């Protein structure tokens, strides 16, 4: 019997940080409002493409697993903000790391990384593949309308990656559940892509539109019910869960989720303060941070859950293997940016505030 274990992990965080106070220099908001309503203090804004972030994270994950790109037999890249749709950006990462295998992107929004891990674990357990790279990478700043404070303060850019390997050692991914609620497709969306109808050139403007309170409720319901389902399916009690690694969209969502599940808050890995919501990247970044801090111990049971546009949701249960330290390290990093973060985003900020004025908002 083959088990699917995480054997390598890595993240890539762009060097430019946008704090709540930076945001308050050009929009009506405050550190106090953002921090108390969301838990976020700062986020990273990327001057490089999503695939470059993904490549850096992938190189760290490969080094941590002690393998090379050529050892991989599949690459799954979860993103809703690829730098190119054709070709997929898994192929860009593949070229950079020298892999010769299948490679594809998936878009399940913020649940994408868990969809990817679930899929990869099934491929490994079926005997089809032995070493799979799964990446969650996003440059959500691409979608932001900086004049809309209700969304602009929430998101950030970044990437995280893991290597999933076949092993005879019991454990690894124990089970997963995926769901999607198509009735809620319209409560979280961007019109990006609607201009694919080239006979209708009415609008090239796109930004994230959402109903925050409705998502808030459905996120807790979706993550909660799938988490319960995966625990039951794997015959594991919630009391035996050592860590919950939830999607980081809002700290209050995480608080409500664990409180409803009657899991102590101390068991939840929360790092939204530093990154904001990086969509498909939040969970792999949180895994890296938890390992860096020495929180995850060999053999511990981890419950991870997510929700995203669709509305997708996912929950995954895993038993960590023996190794919690990297085999090797990589010196890959996101290059420095010569601009300040406010200089970088200024053209987009000016564009959207001018547009808001024209629209009478
Ligand atoms: N700064 C200051 N005031 C603000 C800001 C801001 N950035 N944003 C909104 N406000 C104001 C509103 O205008 C409103 O003012 P009013 O009372 O005068 O009308 C007031 O704050 C309260 O607004 P609410 O929308 O009721 O605030 P709420 O407490 O619901 O928090 C939030 C909003 C943070 C968006 C919350 O609903 C939320 O986190 N929702 C779900 C999370 C989410 O959707 N994340 C993105 C999902 S994407 C993904 O992960 C797939």
Automatic annotation (TrEMBL):
Write out the ranges of the annotated region (ACP-binding). Answer: 248-252
**Active-site residues, Swiss-Prot/TrEMBL:** 110, 247, 277
**First-tier enzyme category under EC:** transferase
Give me the reactions it catalyses. Answer: malonyl-[ACP] + acetyl-CoA + H(+) = 3-oxobutanoyl-[ACP] + CO2 + CoA
Pathway per its UniProt entry is:
Lipid metabolism; fatty acid biosynthesis
**Which Enzyme Commission number(s) are listed?**
2.3.1.180
What does UniProt give as GO cellular component? cytoplasm
An MF annotation (GO) of this entry: 3-oxoacyl-[acyl-carrier-protein] synthase activity
NCBIfam families (UniProt xref): fabH, PRK09352.1
Task: Describe the function of this protein.
Answer: Catalyzes the condensation reaction of fatty acid synthesis by the addition to an acyl acceptor of two carbons from malonyl-ACP. Catalyzes the first condensation reaction which initiates fatty acid synthesis and may therefore play a role in governing the total rate of fatty acid production. Possesses both acetoacetyl-ACP synthase and acetyl transacylase activities. Its substrate specificity determines the biosynthesis of branched-chain and/or straight-chain of fatty acids.
Write the protein's name.
Beta-ketoacyl-[acyl-carrier-protein] synthase III
Q: What is the lineage of its organism?
A: Bacteria, Pseudomonadati, Pseudomonadota, Gammaproteobacteria, Alteromonadales
């Amino acid at each position: 019997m083959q088990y699917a274990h995480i054997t390598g992990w890595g993240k890539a965080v762009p060097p430019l940080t946008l704090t709540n106070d930076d945001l308050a220099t050009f929009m009506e908001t405050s550190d106090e409002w953002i921090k108390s309503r969301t838990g976020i203090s700062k986020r990273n804004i990327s001057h490089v493409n999503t695939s470059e972030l993904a490549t850096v994270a992938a190189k760290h994950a490969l080094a941590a697993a002690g393998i090379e790109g050529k050892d991989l037999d599949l690459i799954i890249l979860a993103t809703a903000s690829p730098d190119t749709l054709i070709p997929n950006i898994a192929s860009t990462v593949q070229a950079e790391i020298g892999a010769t295998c299948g490679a594809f992107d998936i878009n399940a929004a913020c649940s994408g990384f868990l969809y990817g891990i679930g899929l990869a674990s099934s491929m490994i357990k079926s005997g089809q593949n032995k070493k799979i790279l799964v990446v969650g990478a996003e440059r959500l700043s691409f979608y932001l309308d900086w004049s809309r404070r209700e969304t602009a303060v929430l998101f950030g850019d970044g990437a995280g990656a893991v290597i999933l390997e076949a092993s005879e050692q019991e454990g690894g991914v124990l089970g997963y559940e995926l769901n999607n609620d198509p009735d809620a497709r319209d409560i979280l969306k961007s019109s990006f892509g609607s201009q694919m109808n080239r006979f209708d050139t009415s609008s090239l403007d796109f930004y994230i539109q959402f109903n925050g309170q409705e998502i808030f409720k459905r996120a807790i319901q979706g993550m909660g019910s799938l988490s319960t389902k995966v625990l039951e399916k794997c015959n594991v009690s919630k009391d035996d869960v050592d860590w919950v690694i939830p999607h980081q969209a809002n700290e209050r969502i995480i608080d409500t989720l664990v409180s409803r599940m009657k899991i102590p808050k101390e068991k939840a890995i929360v790092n939204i303060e530093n990154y904001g919501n990086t969509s498909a990247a939040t969970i792999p970044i949180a895994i890296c941070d938890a390992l860096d801090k020495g929180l995850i111990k060999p053999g511990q049971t981890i419950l991870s859950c997510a929700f995203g546009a669709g509305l997708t949701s996912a929950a995954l249960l895993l038993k960590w293997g023996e190794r919690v330290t990297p085999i090797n390290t990589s010196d890959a990093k996101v290059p420095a940016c010569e601009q300040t973060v406010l200089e970088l985003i200024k053209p987009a900020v000016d564009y959207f505030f001018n547009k808001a004025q024209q629209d009478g908002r």
